[in-house]
Amino acid sequence: MKLPLDALPNFRCLPGEGPHLRGALSISPSVDYMERAYDQAKYGEFSSRPYIDMVIPTLTDPSVAPPGKHVLSCFVQYAPYHLRSGSNGRRDEGAPRDKGNTTLEPSEWDRQREAFGDTVIDTIAEYAPNIRDIMLHRQVLTPLDIERDFGLTEGNIFQGELTLEQLFFARPVPGWSQYATPIRNLWMCGSATHPGGGIMGAPARNCVLRILGQTR
After folding, report:
1. pLDDT above 70 for 89
2. Which residues, other chains included, contact 70 with Cβ-Cβ below 8 Å and sequence gap of 6+?
3. C-alpha angle 31-34-38 in degrees, rounded to nearest 5
């Protein structure tokens, strides 16, 4: 989710402007908190208290927004691609699930997109109470939106989960972990390959080194 802002967020834990706003900002107060957030995703619900990674790119590149304005970019977890019909992610903790309404559909995101956005704003507001006052707009991208707009299967920005069974020699699949494919001169790089996604560029570098090694 992206939030154009009229000013900078003011966090309870460290009020005011400062260098702390230039790095990564994370709402993940405990391991238990993150585990509960993931538990809901296991049952086809987006997290009612999500784990959120945030950055404010305008503090390092002011050209991203008009003078005096800012952008808050949020990476939110957990939001399953297959969303349970009838869920709005706001179920009270401990409340029973509706076992009679368990259809899992990606298209359910079209109905629940704004509820998901509200949940993210509610969570941020617990830590930065001025967020609603400085918001100018919001862009909510669900896993389904990311798939539709950017062609990333099931909205996964890493092109495959970064889990043990899909890492190292098994990324993207066993036998293809060294960037070469069964098709002559077709090579793979990017988030789907070792060591995975991010901005480090390591998959592309590794792939180039392999190609150079083959052509010497």
Report:
1. no
2. 4, 5, 7, 8, 56, 58, 59
3. 135
Instruction: Give yes or no for a contact between 115 and 84, defined as CB atoms under 8 angstroms apart.
Output: no
Position 169, amino acid: F
pLDDT tens digit string along 147-189?
999 888 888 888 888 888 888 888 888 888 888 888 888 998 8
Q: Is 178 exposed, middle or buried, given 0-12, 13-18 or 19+ CB atoms closer than 10 A?
A: middle
Q: Convert the pLDDT of each residue in 46-58 to its tens digit.
A: 999 999 999 999 9
Pairing of strands 70-77, 51-55: antiparallel
- Residue 119 CA to residue 121 CA, distance in Å, equals 5
Residue 126: CB partners within 8 Å, gap ≥ 6? none
Give the whole-angstrom CA distance, residue 210 versus residue 152. 26
Gap between the Cα atoms of 64 and 153, Å rounded: 28
- How much of the chain is helix, strand and coil, in % rounded to 5? 35, 15, 50
